[in-house]
Design brief:
globular, 4 helices, alpha+beta, two-stranded antiparallel sheet, 7-stranded mixed beta sheet
Length: 181
């Protein structure tokens, strides 16, 4: 697994070391995240199911981030936060605190493949989240690094992770319209 994170430069672009466990990520469209496979924005538009080897009673933070905003060649908005949930007990994301509602991949046209990284951090306990709670729009999502969240809330390195790649498809204009309204 660490070889895939290094091959696709998730280490060091997003995290310092690959997590020990794979986070299983799948969508109702039938696709799965498989350590760098290519998926379409259309296939990942809905909230995925994410599971990992969770400890009973432990709290976790789940982050989905795109380090390639607006493009891998020019990542001036690195990272773009697609999803953030804190205080997830075990694998039950639905009962965590939704800080940034899920936004599927939406890379701009002609920017090539973007990496979409799912990172799961074990929290030292329940945390008091102190940053703004986001809406499902563009505000507050650009230039928000997973490393900064991990440092601020004393999360350490991720315990599980996965990632896929995607580039523009016909669904992206619809997504941009939804996020702009």
């Amino acid at each position: 697994m660490s070889a895939k994170f290094a091959e696709h430069a998730v280490v060091p672009d997003v995290i310092d070391q690959a997590p020990a466990a794979v986070a299983e990520v799948s969508w109702s469209s039938g696709v799965k995240c498989e350590l760098g496979n290519v998926l379409t924005p259309t296939a990942v538009k809905d909230v995925p199911t994410v599971t990992w080897p969770a400890e009973d009673g432990a709290f976790y933070t789940v982050i989905m981030t795109d380090p390639d905003a607006p493009s891998r060649q020019n990542p001036k908005a690195r990272e773009w936060r697609h999803w953030l949930v804190v205080n997830v007990r075990g694998n039950d994301i639905s009962k965590g605190l939704l800080v940034a509602p899920y936004v599927g991949s939406g890379p701009p046209k002609d920017t090539g493949l973007h990496r979409y990284c799912f990172l799961v951090y074990k929290q030292p306990g329940e945390i008091q989240y102190q940053d703004p709670i986001l809406k499902r729009d563009f505000n507050g999502r650009a230039s928000t690094k997973a490393r900064d969240v991990a440092a601020k809330y004393n999360l350490g390195d991720p315990v599980a992770g996965n990632f896929f790649q995607a580039e523009w498809d016909d669904y992206v204009p619809q997504l941009m319209k939804e996020l702009s309204s």
